[in-house]
Known about the structure:
This protein is α/β, with parallel strands linked by helices. It has helices spanning 40-54, 78-87, 91-107, 124-127, 158-163, 169-176, 182-187, 200-206, 212-219, 232-239, 244-253, 257-266, 271-285, 290-304, 308-319, 337-341, 355-361; strands spanning 16-21, 24-29, 61-66, 71-73, 113-117, 120-122, 134-137, 142-144, 193-194. The strands form 2 sheets. The chain has a 6-stranded mixed sheet, with helices on both faces.
Amino acid sequence: MTGAKSQSPRIADDSVLVEVRGRAGYLTLNRPKALNALNHIMARRIDDALTEWEYDPRIDTVVISGAGERGLCAGGDIRSIHDDARSGGMASADFWYDEYRLNARIARYPKPYVALMDGIVMGGGVGISAHGSVRVATERSRIAMPETGIGFVPDVGGTYLLSRAPGELGTHLALTGAPVGAADARLCGLVDYFVPSQRLPGLLAALSHIPANEAVGRYAAEPPLGELADQRDWIDECYAVDTVEEIVRRLLDTGVAAAKEAAGTILTKSPTALKVALAALRAARELDYLERALEQEYRIACAALSSPDLVEGIRAQVIDKDRDPHWSPPTLAEVTDADVARFFRPLGRRDLSFAEELGAQS
């Protein structure tokens, strides 16, 4: 992209490219070798740009995309989180505090926020895209919340989004961590439009001078068929209970191959993370605002920093890549209600609170 660059004096680096073209502000995550993994500096830089553009009468639309061909964003920088958790630090908590506030800001941003969810969009990548007002997927999109596989729990507002998917689709995606394509992501309420990837350059150009929904409408098409619509019967039946053990039992008893495969996938995840994720999803269903879910997720995330499964999960999946995590406790039966409750305890002065913002809404 070319054009006059906006100013962001507080943070100067190139991990997020910030520029203005015509009537649109463009944010490009620019760490393609790391699949544009999001770190604290990047979150702050995005927030700075949103602050600058919110009341700028020259800017009608904000567009976020990822550099390279592999994806918008593969999630948070979990290597850094691994190192922080091992050392007992608080850098990750500080990052999540700002990241979750950014997620809430995106959801309430007063101008069209167009997220190009091309390629891999996972974890933190979902947080900076799926809360936007105009969400675009392509045939290359693979959208997921895979946190239970690293001993963590869907965050960045993921429990709020997934708890509002039709039936039990969100529970299925949260526990298995399964990625979905454009059609299934649209079914689950995570995207709005499908645009073939070869049309993205034209769309990017059009957004600089055409209203967002009109521009996307010119380039949108119907996505290829998904899979989840045909699986609703067994998904809704098997996941409509409030214990992970019973979910797994039902999945194994269905006689449906895809259901048994889902059970096998779930049983490879952190038992503690699975139980906490299910409790968080069920609680999020009863929360009226995204911000309340983010407050809950922040408590869970901070508790996870002192959980052995987070360090072990990242080690197995990302550091050593042996794909052989040793969870503690190792089985669902050994995870007690008290173990789960620990993740929901208030943090006192360290709690994330949107009381002021929500008070202004009432």
